[in-house]
Design a protein that fits this description.
The complex is a heterotetramer, with 2 copies of chain A and 2 copies of chain B. In chain A, 58% of the residues are buried. By secondary structure, chain A is of the alpha/beta class. The longest helix of chain A is centred in the last third of the chain and has 19 residues, at 227-245. The radius of gyration of chain A is 18 Å and the shape is globular. Chain A has helices at residues 2-7, 21-31, 60-65, 72-80, 122-128, 161-165, 202-207, 227-245; strands at residues 14-17, 38-41, 45-46, 68-69, 87-90, 94-95, 101-102, 105-106, 114-115, 131-135, 172-176, 180-184, 191-197, 215-222. Chain B has helices at 8-15, 33-41, 55-63, 84-92, 105-116, 132-135, 184-190, 242-251, 255-267, 272-283; strands at 4-5, 21-24, 47-50, 67-72, 76-77, 81-82, 99-102, 121-124, 140-143, 150-155, 161-170, 175-177, 193-202, 212-214, 221-224. Classes of the chains: A alpha/beta, B alpha/beta. Chains in contact: A-B, A-C, B-C, B-D, C-D.
């Protein structure tokens, strides 16, 4: 998933990066084919070049390697809202068939079954980024026909509803998951199977999705990871594990 | 009219009252953990807690029963998972129900900015086509008087008191901050009272030029509190203890374990130095 | 996607068109004089000039007939007196009438901030009980959707192109700015195109941390132009030539003297280096 | 005038300073009885301690000696509008009997006899500062019954009109001029003669004011400058003259 997502990013593109898989994908892209990619973390670091993956969105590594650090209000108003972000990478607990996302709550809002962390930067990333990439693992409980709560807008009810609502950004370009990728149908904007990892069958994909998954016009096969990609990713992950496990001297 | 220098116990004792609206800010970086612990030690109740990312410090305060209401935009353990005490309060009302005033980061940033500028509301292009406005009556709209466009509006946040942690203060009480600042400046300037804990105090700060400096005359009290951001970090002083953040997931997962840990390390310790020492003993 | 490095002549030639809305910002400090001179040399017409404090650079551009409209909040020679060419345009329509879009500093700051955030308007507590709204239909009111309070509203400023001067750029085109910044950041981010003239270009800038840095990917063109802020100044490079500001009062007082000076020192010189040399010759 | 104005400022007070006489008065106060006065210039310098008086509001001397430098939007929104300024010092071309100010235009706005620089920071300083001190030389053309243009609000039509309008700041506390000081009447808020420089007569003051000037309940005599005040002011002015006349090396 990380490698497939990294390949979608181009050199020089401005990414608004969430923590976890998106951060790993963006940094892998930076360390492979996209050295001039601009990573913006919502903590206000612009142009960060971390040597290890941050655990949080605001590790010191990000500030120390960034071109500059601005305030959170500025990153959201002067960069994201101003339309300066090419790609927003988003995770979620649920995605529906039109790419709308839930990261707020499972069950009713006022008496939730599972309270999730909530919106964070997602609603406005989904609204303003020129395009978004969604990354989450597929199960029928995460790829659902109907969200429990719409935290971030995708294509709403599809068929141009998003454009009619006046959203400035383009919406989800694809959903990268553990069996492959979904992409919106050009007209209905329903998420369809766009590509599979090699060795994965269509039935496997269908079983992991909570709505009747349609194949896209062309269902591609994603090239397996190259040795260099794997090596760089593994090195990055090893450096990261070592850094995060390093016992810290208490500030005493 | 220099700022007053107080002990943390006195600063909390004087500035935090039951029922107050209290913001502890610092986005991942410079989180005023020691101040949160002291509020727990002094057993403040019914607080309206405000913070973009509640983090472990509010998990602790909520779990210890300090809060009746939470204004926030993302409530998780960054990179790890849930805040179990926050979840327990929301899902099961333990130790007491928690009223949520829920925003997005962009919305809360606008609300802090409005507060700092003493405007009654902030505006943004946001919340569009989400379910948040349906569950938060404090998210409304305002029409542009020139174009007629509809924008999202949020009421200003003006905490009764904001706590920050920072690297250094001078003897006059000016405070210099470097690194990731999040909405710390806006939360500081929006507050009626501002208390800052700092790693060190020096005779004289160099001119900050375009860096972030909080002038002494906007600060109510400065507290010398080394390690006051731990397990968060203070750029240039110590790093984030990512291992502790991961460890917290287990500590906070059940009520008994949480209460035992808080009893031993927070309630059972006199101050932040003793808190840190108690962790050192545990690790040894 | 690094920024393009251009000569000043090419940067102006490509980015400034007759009739465009152009902002040269820099509050007393880092005023892009060389850019203004080049716009005069290329004889641009009917510009909508935007600047909080028009200063000598707009006195020159207005007197040379570049402008049809001026958005501003204070139009004087700081600490000296009038801008005679601005006055002549407003009082006598020479060399052509000048439409005024007049604000206060606070109002214009709000308008730039709105522009930078791509909001359609900015708001403030301002203009109250003054005659400004009666003479500027772009000053309106907006009601707070929570309290009903009435606030002043101004439309966003989004220049077609903003020019700034700064101390230093790196080879990728990132620009670092230090010292008094006024509304330079907001004017830069509000613009459709951004051109920055700089004192020097270095291989690599140190991380700016919380300082002001304009990332290369928001900049249309960087121009290496030492002395490009003179007679304004560049902190750390050269000081403000206060004597020149005082001298300008006599130069600009009458039309003939002004035209002769501009002919000799601006139109008659190829570029900023030649402009500065011509002043040196005069002083000798 | 400068010395009389300086004496009104107290140690630790937060002043929003305009250029010219106000700047001289504030710095004199800082160099005499008010070392901890906080000077804010609208250019964004907070806590400036200039060694020479700046010619402009944004000389490098201010940035280099300031505790910090913030943006102009921030100084106006987070400091002035937020009610953090104790004293605003204002100049103007005209003041009327209720302390309203004109710095915009003499004659009609659309066909002015004299176009003045305009508002700058004045309207919001006048609105938000807890109190303002106005400094200008008196002639019947500058102290006028009716302004040509109201740039900044004083007490409007007096008798509580300002408070009724909801203005957060307290309005003009006094007008310092070359014959002495005016202050608002406690109820009508009309500017009345409050004090005279020693050696100046009431008739002289009346002749310089374009409305029938009433004496206040007590008309004081302003103490003549002390030797120390004069010496420090003259030193400051001499340093300033020398600095501003120093030929600059062209940046060639």
């Amino acid at each position: 998933m990380t490698i497939a997502a990294a390949r979608l990013l181009w050199d020089g593109c401005v990414c608004f990066v969430g923590i976890g898989l998106p951060s790993a994908a963006c940094n892998l892209a930076r360390l492979t084919h996209a050295p001039e990619i601009v990573l913006i973390y919502e903590s206000g670091t612009i142009g960060a070049r971390p040597d290890v993956l941050p655990l949080s969105i605001g590790d010191g590594e990000l500030a120390a390697t960034a071109a500059c650090v601005v305030s959170l209000p500025e990153i959201f108003s002067h960069y994201l809202q101003a339309g300066r972000v090419d790609v927003g990478l988003l995770g979620a607990a649920q995605v529906d068939r039109f790419g709308n996302l839930n990261s707020t709550v499972i069950g009713p809002y006022d008496s939730p079954h599972t309270r999730l962390p909530g919106a964070g930067g997602a609603p406005e990333i989904a609204l303003h980024a020129r395009q978004t990439f969604v990354m989450l693992k597929a199960t029928p409980r995460s790829f659902v026909p109907t969200l429990d709560f719409r935290t971030s807008a995708g294509f709403l009810e599809g068929s141009g509803a998003r454009a009619r609502s006046g959203a400035p950004g383009g919406g989800p370009k694809c959903v990268i998951t553990d069996f492959g990728m979904l992409a919106p149908h050009p007209h209905t904007q329903e998420l369809q199977l766009a590509a599979l990892f090699s060795g994965v069958g269509v039935d496997e994909a269908r079983a992991a999705v909570g709505w009747p998954l349609s194949p896209g016009a062309h269902v591609g096969i994603i090239d397996p990871p190259e040795a260099r990609e794997l090596e760089i990713l593994r090195d990055l992950q090893a450096r990261t594990r070592a850094a995060h496990a390093r016992p810290m001297t208490l500030p005493l | 009219m220099s700022t007053r220098f107080l002990s943390l116990a006195d600063a909390v004792g004087e500035h935090v009252h039951d029922g107050a609206c209290v913001a502890l800010e610092g986005f991942t970086h410079l989180i005023p953990f020691a101040a949160g612990h002291e509020i727990i030690r002094q057993r403040r109740r019914d607080l309206h807690l405000v913070r973009m990312t509640p983090d472990l410090v509010y998990d602790q305060m909520i779990g210890m029963g300090c809060a009746r209401r939470l204004t926030f935009s993302w409530g998780g353990n960054p990179g790890v998972g849930s805040l179990h005490r926050l979840r327990d309060a929301v899902e099961h009302g333990w130790p007491q129900p928690l009223q949520l005033d829920e925003h997005s980061h962009a919305g809360m940033a606008a609300a802090y900015c409005a507060g700092a500028a003493r405007l009654p509301f902030g505006m943004l292009r946001g919340y569009q086509d989400t379910d948040l406005p349906a569950h938060n009556p404090r998210i409304r709209t305002v029409a542009c008087p020139f174009t007629g466009q509809s924008l999202a509006a949020v009421p200003a946040i003006n905490p009764d008191v904001t706590f920050l942690h920072a690297q250094v203060a001078d003897r006059q009480g000016n405070v210099a901050v470097a690194g990731i600042i999040g909405a710390a400046r806006e939360a500081a300037l929006a507050a009626k009272l501002l208390v800052v804990t700092v790693e060190e105090i020096v005779d004289c700060l160099p001119p900050a030029m375009n860096g972030l400096l909080l002038p002494h005359w906007i600060i109510s009290a400065v507290v010398h509190c080394p390690g006051g951001a731990y397990p968060s970090y203070a750029q240039g002083h110590y790093e984030r203890d990512n291992a502790f953040y991961q460890h917290w997931d287990a500590i906070a997962r059940d009520r008994e374990g949480f209460l035992a840990w808080m009893g031993e390390h927070v309630l059972g310790q006199r101050d932040n130095r003793a808190f840190l020492s108690s962790l050192l003993v545990e690790a040894a």
